[in-house]
């Protein structure tokens, strides 16, 4: 972890400027009838989960270019996640991926305690084969034509639930790579029937206080069809399985220009929004940093979430899921957590009474401007003050660079293998 005195010294140097900026924004918001302290408190209470696999350098199927001091295993990953939370105060939970993060639950809990973290949703992996595995997932897992392969995939998900129960997780996220690469390769209906039959077995093992999240993805690794290709199929799954099943929306898993915020609204309306994997994309599932390409879209998603806040039972899980190919993953994850907080803060500024009035009177221009006014407000001083109040860093990236953390861990962590593919 980073020495708290390093953070305190950096904050001290930035404090006077921050106070001036915060007070100026407070005056401005006050004229709009908004209490800046109330917004800051909500932002400070907000958290987004870090995926354990996000702290390693990602890659494409062409190559991976790891940096120095890459985490060598789950305990290194938790150290990195602890640093991210220490500096941002915005990432209190980590989402583990089995078998990549398989370890003794007692050791995981001890490390979580040491790093100030807790565990978010468990993620199963039936999209790649593990050493010594009896059946191959080359042609699918939960929807495979072979019953023994489906049973193996179900069994793995049950193991993830058991593991999660021992470390305080309350959800299982299931994403499968199942699909087809050629027209005619798979019978769409039979394949989906097999998927549902397997998913029902997983659902049946879910503890009463757990949720099951299923994640849709339009393409990759299957390039002609995927079994859970879009939110429609995802909704069907959640409806077929039962009350504890919900849809997970990964922003990158849609075709370009799809109206994701509207999908979010539909899932909220019918009680099936489970949560998010935040990231951004330009062309496809690019796994770019959250808000790197289209911050307005992220804001529009949060606009729907803020609009729905207070709905009984509405408690979507928030997690980042992105691949860091050319940046230090810790820096990218810190920035992305702050971008999610920013979108939330901006959405809190929307004048909802005015917006409803413009909607009712069909004043399209002023309705749009109402959203834009909130989006254009620079809420940076609110985010900084929320961090400062909890002894996190006013400027996390600058403080991280000054701390020398990466160079320090590089001395003890073995250098990572840059050969081979991509997805981590
Ligand atoms: Mn995802």
From TrEMBL:
<keyword id="KW-0413">Isomerase</keyword>
<dbReference type="Pfam" id="PF01261">
    <property type="entry name" value="AP_endonuc_2"/>
</dbReference>
<dbReference type="InterPro" id="IPR036237">
    <property type="entry name" value="Xyl_isomerase-like_sf"/>
</dbReference>
<dbReference type="InterPro" id="IPR050337">
    <property type="entry name" value="L-rhamnose_isomerase"/>
</dbReference>
<dbReference type="GO" id="GO:0046872">
    <property type="term" value="F:metal ion binding"/>
</dbReference>
<dbReference type="InterPro" id="IPR013451">
    <property type="entry name" value="L_rhamnose_iso"/>
</dbReference>
<dbReference type="InterPro" id="IPR013022">
    <property type="entry name" value="Xyl_isomerase-like_TIM-brl"/>
</dbReference>
<keyword id="KW-0479">Metal-binding</keyword>
<dbReference type="GO" id="GO:0016853">
    <property type="term" value="F:isomerase activity"/>
</dbReference>
<feature type="domain" description="Xylose isomerase-like TIM barrel">
    <location>
        <begin position="92"/>
        <end position="287"/>
    </location>
</feature>
<protein>
    <submittedName>
        <fullName>Xylose isomerase</fullName>
    </submittedName>
</protein>
<keyword id="KW-0464">Manganese</keyword>
């Amino acid at each position: 972890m980073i020495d708290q005195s390093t953070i305190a010294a950096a904050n001290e140097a930035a404090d006077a400027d921050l106070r001036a900026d915060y007070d100026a924004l407070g005056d401005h918001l006050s004229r709009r009838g908004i209490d800046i302290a109330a917004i800051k408190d909500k932002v400070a209470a907000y958290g987004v989960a870090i995926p354990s696999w996000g702290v390693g350098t990602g890659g494409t199927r062409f190559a991976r270019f790891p940096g120095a001091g890459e985490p060598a295993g789950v305990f290194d990953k938790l150290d990195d996640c602890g640093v991210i939370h220490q500096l941002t105060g915005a990432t209190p939970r980590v989402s583990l991926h089995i078998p990549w993060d398989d370890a003794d639950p007692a050791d995981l809990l001890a490390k979580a305690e040491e790093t100030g973290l807790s565990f978010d949703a468990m993620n199963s992996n039936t999209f790649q084969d593990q050493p010594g595995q009896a059946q191959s997932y080359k042609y699918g897992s939960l929807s495979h034509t072979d019953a023994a392969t489906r049973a193996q995939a179900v069994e793995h998900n049950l193991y993830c639930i058991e593991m999660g129960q021992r470390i305080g997780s309350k959800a299982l996220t299931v994403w499968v790579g199942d699909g087809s690469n050629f027209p005619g390769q798979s019978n769409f209906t039979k394949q989906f029937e097999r998927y549902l039959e397997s998913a029902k077995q997983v659902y049946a093992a879910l503890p009463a206080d757990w949720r099951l999240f299923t994640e849709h993805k339009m393409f990759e690794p299957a390039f002609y069809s995927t079994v859970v290709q879009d939110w429609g199929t995802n909704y069907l799954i959640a409806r077929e399985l039962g009350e504890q099943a919900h849809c997970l929306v990964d922003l990158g898993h849609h075709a370009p220009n799809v109206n994701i915020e509207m999908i979010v609204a539909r899932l909220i309306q019918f009680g099936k929004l489970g949560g998010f994997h935040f990231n951004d994309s330009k062309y496809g599932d690019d796994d770019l940093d959250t808000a790197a390409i289209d911050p307005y879209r992220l804001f529009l998603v949060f606009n729907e979430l803020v609009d729905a806040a207070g709905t009984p039972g509405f408690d979507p899980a928030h997690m980042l899921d992105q691949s860091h190919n050319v940046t230090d993953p810790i820096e990218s994850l810190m920035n992305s957590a702050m971008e999610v907080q920013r979108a939330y803060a901006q959405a809190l500024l929307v004048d909802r009474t005015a917006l409803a009035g413009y909607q009712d009177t069909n004043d399209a221009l002023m309705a749009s401007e109402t959203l834009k006014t909130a989006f254009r407000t620079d809420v940076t001083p609110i985010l900084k003050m929320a961090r400062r109040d909890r002894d996190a860093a006013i400027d996390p990236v600058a403080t991280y660079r000054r701390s020398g953390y990466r160079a320090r861990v590089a001395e003890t962590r073995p250098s990572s293998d840059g050969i081979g593919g991509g997805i981590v």
